[in-house]
Amino acid sequence: MANIITELLDRREIPNYLSGVAAVGKDWVLNEIPTDAEGWIGTGDDGIAIDEINSERCLIKYELWDGPPPALDTWDRTWSGSVHLTSGKIEAVDQHSGSVSYGAEFDLGRENSTWQVRVHRKALGHEEFTPNIIGFTLLKLQFWLDH
Questions:
Q1: What radius of gyration do the chain's Cα atoms show?
Q2: Which helix (H) or strand (E) holds 134?
């Protein structure tokens, strides 16, 4: 069974202009990555484009695992794929009206590697306070290397 090596909960709330997660210093790559057929996620060298423009606020948690993590069935949506990162460090990027903001850096501990990644999404809601009213989304990104 796989174990978690390290994790980071980025306490910075991201407004509704999340572009995705990019290798540190490579935020420009997110503009060039097409999303999947559902229009939610896409990967390219040094970035994961994540379209969460309908979420007013997002929080992101990063996890580094020593193998494939167990499935999380309680989340609304899950995507799996791979991404090549040259720096081995990533950060959330949000872009609005020509300005760019960054989240906390998460160090994966290895440069120039292709990572397996799983992205989980959960829109918060409770009873009649539906997710579209609350407008708050949690994203969990899990990384591991194939051995």
A1: 15
A2: helix 131-134
Q: To 10 degrees, the CA torsion angle through 116, 87, 8, 145?
A: 20
Distance from first CA to last CA of the chain, Å, rounded? 14
Alpha carbons 27 and 36: distance in angstroms, whole number: 19
pTM attached to this predicted model: 0.91
pLDDT grade, residue 50 (50/70/90)? very high
Q: How far apart are CA 147 and CA 135, in angstroms?
A: 39
Asked if 64 contacts 4 with a C-beta cutoff of 8 angstroms, the reply is yes
Query: Which of 41, 9, 7, 48 minimizes the C-alpha distance to 27?
Result: 48
Percentage with pLDDT > 90 across the chain = 62
Instruction: Tell me the average pLDDT across 42-58.
Output: 89
